[in-house]
Amino acid sequence: MQIFERHYFIYCINLIHKCIDILDSIDYYWADTNPKPCHQPIIDKLSIMNAELKKVSNNKFPQFDKWSMPIIDVPKQAGPSDCMFFLWKYMEFWDGEHLNIDINPGMIYRVELMHFLVFHPLNQADLPDELDVYRLGGRKIDWSGSQ
C-alpha cells in the first residue's frame, strides 16, 4: 500500500506572507520517500481552486497558484494512521508563522480523544460522580425521555 493512499495534509493559503504553507505530518526523510508524488495532484489543481475562489469573491481573492509552497517543519506522526489527529492540531494552532503549541504525538491528541469519547453526549455509560466532574460542558442525553 502506498504511504499516500489515505493520507491527509493542510494547504494554508497564507495571505500575509503570500505563500501556501504545506503542513504535512509524514516524515518523508525517515520514510525514505519523496513528498512530490503525494502533493503533485493538489499542486496541479491549484489554478482551478484559485479560479473558483476568485469567482466566488468577485475577483477579490489574490492570484495564489504561483506562490511559493514551503513544506513547514511540524511535528511528525509516529503511527501509520495518525495524520488526522495532527491536522486537527495544525489547524487549531498554526498562526501563519509557527505552531503555538508543542504537539506531543504520544499524549495530547490521545488524551483529548479519550475525553471526547468518554464524555460525548451519546455515551450512555454510567460514569462515577468522581469522573463526571471532569465533563467540559454539555450533558448526557437522556434517551428514556424522563428529563
From TrEMBL:
GO MF annotation terms: cysteine-type peptidase activity
Protein name: Ubiquitin-like protease family profile domain-containing protein
GO terms for biological process, alphabetical: proteolysis
Gene3D superfamilies in the record: Adenoviral Proteinase, Chain A
Family: Belongs to the peptidase C48 family.
Keywords for this protein: Hydrolase, Protease
Species for this entry: Panicum hallii
Coiled coil: none
Domain Ubiquitin-like protease family profile: from-to ranges: 5-93
Keyword Protease attributed: yes
Classification via InterPro entries: Papain-like_cys_pep_sf (IPR038765), Peptidase_C48_C (IPR003653)
